[in-house]
Automatic annotation (TrEMBL):
One Pfam short name: Multi_Drug_Res
Cell compartments where the protein resides: Cell membrane
Keyword Cell membrane attributed: yes
Family annotation (InterPro entries): EmrE-like (IPR037185), Small_drug/metabolite_transptr (IPR000390), Small_multidrug_res (IPR045324)
Topology term for the membrane: Multi-pass membrane protein
Record organism: Streptococcus loxodontisalivarius
TM spans (from-to): 33-50, 57-78, 84-103
Domain of life assignment: Bacteria
Name assigned to this protein: Quaternary ammonium compound-resistance protein SugE
Keyword terms, alphabetized: Cell membrane, Membrane, Transmembrane, Transmembrane helix, Transport
Length: 106
């Protein structure tokens, strides 16, 4: 269950980053409230995962899932323009996340 908490927390990081962008500098109440709710839930689930997982494992996976997911959402849904090298570094980030998990012993 701990890993589910951590992955959902990472997905919620993507959610709140996206809604923060859509809030237009916190000038749109609906997206501003969604951002705050996503942040709170993301941090709560991360803190729950940290009860059983070491910080050196949980935190980089949480931020990595958030970073990779946010780049994907930006490129696919918000039409962010990314250079081909960005995709190379995105792949390296994914490899790093998987490597951290595989070498952690958890």
């Amino acid at each position: 269950m701990t890993w589910i908490y951590l992955i959902i927390a990472g997905i919620l990081e993507v959610f709140w980053a996206t809604t923060m962008k859509l809030s237009n500098g916190f000038t749109r109440l609906d997206f501003s409230l969604a951002t705050l709710a996503g942040m709170i839930l993301s941090f709560l689930l991360l803190s729950r995962a940290l009860k059983e997982l070491p910080m050196s494992l949980a935190y980089p996976i949480w931020t990595g899932v958030g970073a990779v997911g946010t780049v994907i959402v930006g490129a696919v849904f918000l039409k962010d323009q990314l250079s081909p090298m960005t995709y190379v570094f995105l792949a390296l980030l994914l490899i790093g996340i998987i490597g951290i998990k595989m070498t952690s012993g958890h």
